[in-house]
Write a structure and sequence with these properties.
Blueprint (H helix, E strand, L loop, with lengths): L10 H15 L5 H21 L5 H33 L2
Length: 91
């Protein structure tokens, strides 16, 4: 995935939307969903690196905050799905 539609002008909105959707649905995702989300996130992050020269420094700081928010959500909820799957497999 290249996210070629993402530009320096719209990337903040794309990051915000991505993190908001993940935050809103975090309890619904399976471990496989989290794996896919991680692939999408890495592709978006790669695109950010490609358009960074066109990115306003204030947007860059806001994206850094969104990245921290995403990391904390993923760390908290992705691990929980694995624990839940292990518990269900023992039933």
């Amino acid at each position: 995935m290249k996210f070629e539609f993402v530009t320096g002008a719209n990337i903040l909105g794309v990051y915000k939307n991505f993190v908001d959707v993940v935050a809103d649905s975090k309890k619904l995702y399976s471990r496989e969903d989290w794996d896919e989300i991680n692939v999408l996130y890495e592709a978006l992050d790669s695109r950010k690196n490609a358009v960074e020269k066109d990115l306003a420094s204030s947007d860059n700081l806001k994206i850094a905050g969104l990245k921290i928010r995403f990391a904390s959500i993923a760390a908290t909820h992705r691990g929980g799905t694995k624990v839940k799957e292990n518990a269900e497999s023992k039933k």
